Amino acid sequence: MASTAVMEILPVETKCFHAMPPAPRHAISTHLPGWDLMVEFAKRDPAFWAQFHDMYPRFLIHRDVKQVIELIIQRTKLEDASCLPFPSRAVAEACVEWVTPTKRADGLDPVPKDQISIREFETNGPKLCVVIFPLAHLKLVTPYWVNTGTGISSRLAEDLLNNIQSLREGSLGELDNRTDDTPISQALRQRISGLINRAPVGPPRKTEVSPEDVYLYQTGMSAIVYVHNYLTKWRDNPKSKTVMFGFPFHQTVHIFEWWGAGLKFFPLGTELDELEKYLQDEETNGSPVQAVWTEFPSNPLLVSSDLGRLRILADNFHFALVVDDTVGSFCNVDVLPIADIIVTSLTKSFSGYADVMGGSAVLNSEAAKYAEFKTLFDGLYADDLYIRDAEVLLSNSEDYLTRSTTLNNNAAALVDYLHSLTADPTSCISKVFYPTINSTLSNYEAYKRAPTSEFIPGYGCLFSIQFDTLEQTIEFYNHFHVHHGPHLGAHRTLAMPYVRALYGDELEKVKAWGLEQTQIRISVGLESEKVLVETFKHALKKADAIKSAK
């Protein structure tokens, strides 16, 4: 008689507070197994955060960067001081300008101007500018690093450490760490423009995106920060606000609130009539909206906004339409027909191995405002992406389409399975969120690329599931044996109680927008579909048992 083997699902072996395998020196992931640790993560207690060996480097300064900070403070012989290192003088100055105003936009206390300074250091390798301040003001200065993603990368720090014997203070001036004219940078721009141009939606384009229309940034967050700041200068109207249409990555909202004339937020991504009325009112009041941003689809509920209608509104009200395609990924979706500017976090599935940061902005060369934006970007842009990070982004993305096939297929199979359970009254799953089963599917399909022999597009690696009760949610999460933590688009599956972790103090507020603490966000990895299904079944069995016991 044939026997049916039962797959044993065991907890992952990765140590708590450490990166997922292979856990390289520049890893950007971390593992926080279980619900209780994620709740502690959300509290931002310094004693808890001190335990991390690896972490997303915007959230927690990388250990190589920490060592650079310590060595510079030793070299300056300043007592009770700290510093933050930046790749250029311009970025360091922006930090000082942000933290010193009497009335800071983020509500924190200002750092007295006479207690903060900028100094340049150089080695036989990289150079950097550091913002130096009293150690007591560390909590007042660090938010700039966290929110903008403009600090030096861990690879730049590593190269500084390797040249530390030559560390010396220099005179303030332009630094030469930039990569915009190097073959590596040019190849990376070429790869991105080629992927943007491939398998377009709609009729053939008269003008393709060129590598010169691709702008590289240190992180996905810094791409958002810089593009937003460019656009505040384009409109040249101090009253022109920014609109966020749909629910975005949580820090994006803060950027729009803190820089510029202000933000109008439409969190559902479906309030098109309300948006049109707001645009009309602002224009009538002499404060026309400068830009509308949207994520396609949104994070974490995967809502796909009606981009066609947004394009019509952009033409009628003359604002810039900026689309962040990170979650959909530009191998799957082609938003160029409607976007003036495309912003992408290259850190996610483009890179795919959770070991490097990067971001990009792409100008639509066929957009009516292209000439204006090209002049604007070229006049303000500075490439601060470190050369070694550009090299890793280029190397990692060689198999971008191959990996994306697996990510798409794994996510689609899991969503089909999980969605089928929502009809089962004994199942603890009440909802699944993914482009294929959301009510906004037709909006996604309109911009889904055509299949080719090279690649069949899909719907991305990210989805969310919702449980009937918080107790079931916790039971599932504690027995869901994949890596737990922030990040998406990696080679291994990551789970996170996204709403609880990031909006724990605003649960009632975000509930009105469809976000619940009973939701778990899943970023599917490259594991086998069979293993992933069995892993889900193991955790669901534990959560279902709670329901059946009542």
UniProtKB/TrEMBL annotation:
Signal peptide: none
Keywords from the named record: Lyase, Pyridoxal phosphate
Keyword match Plastid: no
Lineage top rank: taxon: Eukaryota
GO molecular function: cystathionine gamma-synthase activity; lyase activity; pyridoxal phosphate binding
InterPro entries from the UniProt entry: Cys/Met-Metab_PyrdxlP-dep_enz, PyrdxlP-dep_Trfase, PyrdxlP-dep_Trfase_major, PyrdxlP-dep_Trfase_small, Trans-sulfuration_enzymes
Pfam families recorded: Cys_Met_Meta_PP
Entry cofactors: pyridoxal 5'-phosphate
Coiled coil: none
Key word Ubl conjugation present: no
Example GO BP: transsulfuration
Family membership: Belongs to the trans-sulfuration enzymes family.
Protein's name according to its UniProt entry: O-succinylhomoserine (Thiol)-lyase
